[in-house]
Amino acid sequence: MIVTLGTIEEALVYSFVLSFLAVGITLLYKTTKVPNFAHASFTTAGAYAVYSISTILNLNPYIGLPAAFLISTLMAVILFFVVLEPLRKRKASIQMLMIATLAYDILMYGVLNVYADTIQTSFKIPSRTVTLMRFDFTIAGFRGVFIVSLILLLSSVIILYFILNRTYIGISLRASMENQALAESIGINTRVTLLISWIIAGGLAGLGGGILAIWTQIDPSTGMSLVASMFCASIVGGLEEIYGAILGGFLLGLVELIGTEVLARTVGSWVTPYRPIIPLLILFITLIFCPTGLVSPARKAIRKLRGRG
Amino acid sequence: MLELFIVFIIDLLAFFLIYLILNTGLNIELGYTGIPNFGTVFWFSAGGFAAGALASRLGAWLLNIDTSGIDFIRDNMIIVMKINNILEKSPLQALTLLILIIIIAGGIGAMLGAVMSIPTVRLRSDYLAITFLAFGEILNVIGTAYTPLVGGPPGIAVPDVWAWSGKLRFTVSTLTILIIAIIFFAYAEYLVRTPLGRSLRVVRDNEVAAEAYGKDIARFRLISMIIGSTLMSVAGALYVLYSQAVNPSFFRFHWTFLPWLMILLGGVGNNIGVLLGTFIYNTIYKLIVFYKFELGGILPFDVVWLNYILLGALIIIILIYRPQGLLPEKPPRIRLKVKERKE
């Protein structure tokens, strides 16, 4: 067998993490119209929240996940209120907003490194290239992180679906995504809806980061190294389709890990170090040949078929 | 003390000039044409890798050094020593090598710029920025994985094309970079005033209007990308030649984020502003590095990270309070030649 069960499990956990991140990016892109480069540091912050709670307080790593959600939400809300709102008031262009998120990411990268150094000196625990893998449990041969992240992703999607379709705030969020001016004219406070989208996106990124800390090694640059993959997942999903982002996350995670594994076994192990190129190639091909992502053309095709039938 | 001061100034100048070339290239793309190039590190490292991989190979070929049985990566130190020994005595050959490397690095940069201009035509600016940002890292991956290029993560030494100037090596190398920077800067200033420069700005400001006047947008973006990329790659090559070593870890922070910061600080679309921004940033940065050790003992973390925090905060403040930079873009003064009619 070319691919082992372990690789498939790894690839699936990676896909879950990418889905968490890509959903946030897509949501923010739809509401704020800005590709949020600061997602990288939201992820790292979540990972470090879980890591510090687990090692400093000696708790089960999964207890840290809500804290990861909160800390990344906090970072997202600060970005929204302190940086993006003043810029939007000054009618800044999308380019300006993008640079601002990138700058915020750099700032937070510095903060996270300071944090990592500080916990290392004051609590005498390692803080770079660390993992919580050994605290994880196994059920029927599956790693705990696989089961927990699967449940988390499913419940997040269901909750998100419920919020977006069944609650007043979610419906007004969707309204302001479609047409902000129109939404404002019927009395929706778009600032509140924007804020909600930042809270959801930041929190999901924190959860993704927390899972990363339990699943694999983390480092202050973990988020940055995932930037290409998460944006690729979001774009493959169509950058306009929230559930498409999950599809993109799965596609990318599976192709990146299983594809590399298959190539390494068939072509030779020299392929493995080139793994980061795979998301870039997928991104490039998608953007050149199918810039609206894979979901909306598929939807159009289905509609066409239905129309004929 | 005076000697220390001179070393400080020369090092500051060299970095300032390398950044100036890079930023001028970015300004042609971002400032004149409106291409949000979040991947300048891509072209910078392309130039750096070209210089790193070719300097010893070209040098050995140029100086007729017997390379049979020599592996340029494994025996890197031996071959670099041999080349340096010859270059110490012959400035002419050293200069030939320098010029050859710069031309090749520029050419590679131009080619990569032409390739990457394909997405600039098809994509909106936000998608484009993501593409550039993602692609910035691709060369580092290749450089790390493919060791024949620059020897993988440990990197390799690069022959010193200024070996002949002996003790004045850093002064002479800085002067060389100064000359190249002046040429490029003057060209960029000239470019603004030409019809090409005006067309680029029309493409940036209003694509529809540009098309209505019969301007081929794709062609102008291509030209802008080629010119800008050439400059960036030359900057990368000069950086590697100046530091006499190369390794595949050109950080996005240093070679994409900082150039953006400097341009935003000085003023997007204004070459003088770019010059000013580059100078201010580099001076402050070198002063921080210079006084870093006095701060180092007090804090429980590495002072380097404060840089990231300060610069991130600085760019956000600039964006909010002075988005046009210190010197905003001004339309270039053009002297219209009116032919006097002889009556």
TrEMBL record, chain A:
Residue spans making up a coiled coil are none
Q: Which Pfam families match?
A: BPD_transp_2
Q: Name one GO biological process term.
A: amino acid transport
Regarding the membrane, this protein is recorded as: Multi-pass membrane protein
Name where it's found.
Answer: Cell membrane
Look up the signal peptide feature and give its range: none
Q: Any idea what this protein is called?
A: Branched-chain amino acid ABC transporter permease
UniProtKB/TrEMBL annotation, chain B:
Transmembrane region(s): 6-28, 40-63, 94-115, 127-150, 170-192, 222-242, 257-282, 303-321
| GO molecular function annotation | branched-chain amino acid transmembrane transporter activity
The membrane-topology field of this record reads: Multi-pass membrane protein
Query: PANTHER family, per this entry?
Result: BRANCHED-CHAIN AMINO ACID TRANSPORT PERMEASE PROTEIN LIVM-RELATED, HIGH-AFFINITY BRANCHED-CHAIN AMINO ACID TRANSPORT SYSTEM PERMEASE
Under which name does UniProt file this protein? Answer: Branched-chain amino acid ABC transporter permease
Is Cell membrane among this UniProt entry's keywords?
yes
Predominantly, its location class is: membrane
Q: Short name of one Pfam family for this protein? A: BPD_transp_2
Recorded hits in InterPro entries, A to Z, give: ABC_transp_permease (IPR001851), LivM-like (IPR043428)
GO annotation, cellular component aspect: plasma membrane
Q: Work out whether the entry's keyword set contains Transmembrane helix.
A: yes
Q: Which domain of life is it from?
A: Archaea
Entry keywords, A to Z: Cell membrane, Membrane, Transmembrane, Transmembrane helix
Tell me what organism the protein belongs to: Candidatus Methanodesulfokora washburnensis
- List where in the cell it is found: Cell membrane
